[in-house]
Each structure stands twice: as structure tokens, then as C-alpha cells.
Amino acid sequence: xxxxxxxxxxxxxxxxxxxxxxxxxxxxxxxYGKNTPFNAELFPLSEATSHRHLLRDSDATNSxxxxxxxxxxKLTLQSKETPEVADRAYEFxxxxxxxxxxxxxxxxxxxxxxxxxxxxxxxxxxxxLTQHYxxxxxxxxxxxxxxxxxxLPTEEGFAKKGVNDYxxxxxxxxxxxxxxxxxxxxxxxxxxxxxxxxxxxxxxxxTFARDGLTYLxxxxxxxxxxxxxxGAAA
Length: 234
Hints:
Elements: E1 4-13, H1 17-21, H2 23-32, E2 45-48, E3 52-56, E4 63-67, E5 70-76, H3 82-104, E6 109-118, H4 129-134, E7 144-153, H5 155-159, E8 166-175, E9 181-195, H6 197-202, H7 205-225
Antiparallel strand pairs: 1-5, 1-6, 2-3, 3-4, 4-5, 6-9, 7-8, 8-9
């Protein structure tokens, strides 16, 4: 299978100004807490404004941003495989989200998100993406940026009265002027009504991420394999 290059995890919530008041304690616990994987070796640099704190490495390929509206973790994957994604999701839940909950008592969670970015794949394609998607519409195109969205139902949206939760999967397909190709899948869940702290204990981020990886196995990989040369899709 095509290697996974990078991931991003995100949680968005209604403006929660206790996060701003507690940012120093939150950052210290994430960086220096017991058995934390998000330590000062991974994030040696720190930038703070009145609204946001950003932990990052020297070239910002790995970063963790925290504000009163959201928290976003971006990481380069070492193994390039999906089990590492599941492991990182659990670590994000235990060492970042739990720390935010402990210090700021997060309420009104709006969205969970997981972005998976594949390695550059131009050499593995059956044909350039411009030819595959724009064969008749724009025969001379040398670059493209295509984005489409699938909406998925949730069990809660079906089973619970007054619950309108749903999931999106955003496919982004890019080919640059240099012929390099990049594909990413952004798997999201929106909560309507917003998720309370008590509900968030039952609907944890790591389970959401595992559901996203199941979607990748069931639908993402088969779709992607259709674009790849036979050996690359094995």
C-alpha cells in the first residue's frame, strides 16, 4: 500500500476562555507530564500569543497548537503505516485532550477531525491525475486541485431524537506544474448538538480515529488503488 506521510488531528469547540487562562499549565503538563510522547525533544520551540500557544520543531513539520477555540496536532509519521495513526490518536487523547479537560473543563465540542496525507505518488500512478480526471474537459491541463466531499450518517444521528450528528470525508487531489501528485483524506465528525464533557467521555477521540481508519480500509484504499499501477497497489 502507498505509505502515509503525515497526519493532523483536530478538535474544535465553542470559545472556551478558561483554556487561555490555563495555557501555561496545559503546555507544561503536555511537555513535561509523566510518559508524555509530546515532550520538548519533539517540540523544542514554543511560540505564544494572547490567543494561541504553538509548540513545534525547527521546520514546523511537527507542531501542536492550542487556543480557546481548537487544538491541532500535526505529525510526520515514522512507520508510514496505519497502526501508528491509531497509536498517535490514543496518545493525543490521553496526553493532550485529557490535559485540556483537566485544566479547562472543555464543553461544547463541535468537531473531531483526522487528516491523512499520503506520500508523493506521481511515480506510482497509472497515468497523471490531470489525464485521469480531465481527459476530455481540459486536455492540455498541466496542474489541478480537486476537492470533493462525501457525507456519512452516524449511529447517534439515526438512533437519537434531536441528534443531527454527521461525518464528512474530504478528498483532496493535487497535481503541481512539476507533475508531483499529492492525495489526502480528511475524516471529520460534526456534533449537533455540541458534545458535552460527559458525552465526550463516551465518544472518545481514539474511537473516532479507528472509525476513520476503518473507512480508509473499506473505501479509501480501494478508490486509491484504482489510480495506481498494479505493483504499487499491492
